[in-house]
Amino acid sequence: MDFLALQTPALLQGLAVTLLLGLVSFVLGSGLGTLIALARISTFLPLRLAAIAYVSVFRGTPLLIQIMLVYFGLPQLGVRIPPIPAAILTFTLYSAAYLSENFRGGILAVDKGQWEAANSMGMTYQRILARIIFPQAIRTALPAIGNRFIALMKDTSLASVITVVELTRVAESAGSSSFRYIEAFVIAAIGYWLINTALSLGQAALERRMGRAYA
Amino acid sequence: MAIEVRDVNKSFGTTPVLRDVSIDVESGSLTALLGPSGGGKSTLLRVIAGLEQPDTGTVMISGVDATRLSPQRRNVGFVFQHYAAFKHLSVFRNVAFGLEIRKRPKDEIRKRVMELLELVHLEKMADRYPSQLSGGQRQRMALARALAVEPEVLLLDEPFGALDAQVRKELRTWLRRLHDEVHVTTVFVTHDQEEAIEVADTIVVLANGAVEQVGSPAEVYDNPANPFVMRFLGPVTEIGGSLVRPHDIEISTTPTEGATEATVSRIVRLGFEVRVELEIAGQEAWVQVTRGFAERLALQPGDTVNVRPNPGSRSLALSAV
Questions:
Q1: Model confidence at B81: pLDDT above 90
Q2: Is A129 on the interface with B (CB under 8 A)?
Q3: A-B C-beta contacts closer than 8 Å
Q4: Does the distance separating the beta carbons of A136 and B131 come in below 8 Å?
Q5: How many whole angstroms separate alpha carbon B117 and alpha carbon A212?
Q6: Phi-psi sector, B204: left (phi>0), alpha (psi -120 to 50), beta
Q7: Using CA atoms, how far apart are residues A140 and A108, in angstroms rounded to an integer?
Q8: Which of B51, B87, B90 sits opposite A119 (nearest CB)?
Q9: Which end of chain A is more exposed for a tag (fewer CB within 10 A), N or C?
Q10: With an 8 Å Cβ cutoff, are A122 and B88 in contact?
Q11: What's the pLDDT at B20?
């Protein structure tokens, strides 16, 4: 109990940083992922190729290497990014690659007739995307997007290697200072599990809500 | 003219789907594009809507050259065979959509949408989602949605193709009545000659990407331009080297001038009609008569009868082709 009383403030702070990393990276990654998905289905070949190359690189290399390149590698080129922004930048770039594939699948799953119907009603490309295609694409892609979000939450633990004091890092230092590793890591694990259970519940509720029209 | 299509050619890859197609659609008319599948009728409709670009030729809508205009700028309403309902929006929102993007005031939108839903008999379904409607209801919603933006031209691509026979017949009659109320220039695609004859003022018969004939239902039925049109528009049979409608044949048990001898091979009763199947010099033919008439003749398989086209009826000599 001493251990808990002593470490609770630090663990809560670590949890907050983990949430911050996950949420911000997910939101930014979704935005970037959407753009990449649109580039990927564009009729303009160079754009399509650029999107393919992007996804290939960020999906095909370990996240840990990407993080270390950004944090330890970039300063060599004179670009110095503080730990938290560096982590968020990497997680954003990385999850955008995965999310773009989820979005692309969702967009392509929307029937071509929806484009044509919206076209003949006088809608612009942007408006068709925003009002007709995205709402339906997201519904299809939601389970995959939810999985990605949960995976990202766990991946944020890698930020500990670039000195970000998030949940894993707090647990590690709490463990090493008290030699109570089991307690420290079990508590951290529970922290991740709670976050991800909340995300799962949120996702299920969202799926139900979006499924209403399809009963 | 509401629509003038001139010398339109269109190929998919190396396959020509429209060949020098020119048609005029009168303002306020209800025109059917009729033909077998693969004949190019849907492609022509999509060219008019701007969903396809012609390789050559022009499309004028209300006197304006629309050939290079995007579908958005043509002011056409389009109804798809598979409805293309916006599944994530309620019936009301589906119909309201075109008006919302035109930034009409909310009250006006509400009023107009409810009017349209009443017109298509869906006023009680306003809050439902498309998945909660039957096929016929979905198609009526699609029609209301297309009409909402007050298009200059309403285009329907096999609008009843995905519906069962019963609902199809109902919607047909209903489309005709709706057109009489709304008067918007309407073009619809169908491969069903009965549908075209029943609903349209003008029928354009298309086959192999070319216009075979244009005319009123009576004209194309009674004065087909060629054997293809005659065959496509209704039942035909062959007597004495000519194509004749089976109901345009005189049949008698006594020799008649200009008649051909035939042997009765089978008699099929179809409700009030009777189909008399014949053999003429080894060739099969058939005649459609009323039940009363068949009973008076008291025909039996094996009987010898005399048949000839009704005087004044239209027949097409096959040798000409």
A1: no
A2: no
A3: 77
A4: no
A5: 22
A6: beta
A7: 10
A8: B51
A9: N
A10: no
A11: 95
